[in-house]
């Protein structure tokens, strides 16, 4: 679902009573992030549901960036130690 963010997809299904949506982010480092799952009574996805998925998408991006930064820092400090201290 491009309106939420790059790489975000939406699974859709329905029955006689309602429509169902699952918004998820494609794999990031072997993890599939489910951003939101909801039931709705009309075909249109409400702005509040999209906004919630956008906020969660940003949280995933921030957490992923922090993890990469920490891994890079950890690897850099490991390489800086003398061999006998590793």
Account of the 3D structure:
By secondary structure, the chain is an alpha+beta fold. The chain has one domain (8-80). Helix content is 40%, strand content 31%. The protein has one helix spanning 47-80, and strands spanning 8-14, 19-28, 31-40. The chain has a three-stranded antiparallel beta sheet, with helices on one face. The longest helix is centred in the C-terminal third of the chain and has 34 residues, at 47-80.
Condensed summary:
The chain has 86 residues and is an alpha+beta fold.
Which labels suit this protein?
alpha+beta, 3-stranded antiparallel beta sheet, 86 residues
List the helices and strands and how they pair.
Elements (H helix, E strand, L loop, with lengths): L7 E7 L4 E10 L2 E10 L6 H34 L6
Antiparallel strand pairs: 1-2, 2-3
